[in-house]
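WARN retry 2 of 3 for item q-0093 after timeout on previous attempt; input resubmitted unchanged.
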Amino acid sequence: MTTPWAGGSIPWSRPSSTRLLAHWDRDTVARRFLPLLGLPPTPGYLERLLAASALEAPWQTLLAQGKLALSAGTRLAGWPGPEREAALPFLEQLPLSQSKQEEFLESLELLARREGSTPARILSRPELRQHLTQPDLTPSERTGAVRRRLKGWLLPRLSAAQETFQAGLKRWGLSQHPRLRLTPPPAFEGPDFQVEIKFRDAAELRQLLAELARLAGEEEFFDLTAL
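OK item q-0093 returned
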């Protein structure tokens, strides 16, 4: 197996690690041999390497290419084989950072527990799988579509509020406004919205404040800030 680390690939195979562990305990292997590979010399990191090294060949390829984070690989090692197989196309085809890989897998686990289902059943839903093959979207856009779909299932009320808010910003010309930015409270929990204003001089500031005052007087704008 090769494990991506610091922009490169470090060779690490399960047989070699097993041979080392036949002669030394885990603490010694971690302390003496992991630094030689440029890896953190901790037993916890060694355990993650051992877990990920048990994954099937396609996952080993993703690890070697640096497309699968070790933390995600370790998590996948705890899944049954069919669950991993269902997740493979998503991890192969979508450009997911380490944090987004972990978010993706955690969302599937949470949904499966909540629904009494499995990650594989969730991943097999046509409304999710369709995002893998949408030719009119870039890979990053397909990634965003998958994340939004999972978030919508996991947090339906929050997702609905966010979609309504973004649609309102677009309707009022604020979604791409170069000088004004309206931000809702985190997770729409709390009373305070924030407005950021960029201006060059007093005249522009007066113009932007007048624009905000006009919007604040509209009933639909009131609804936007009452989500």
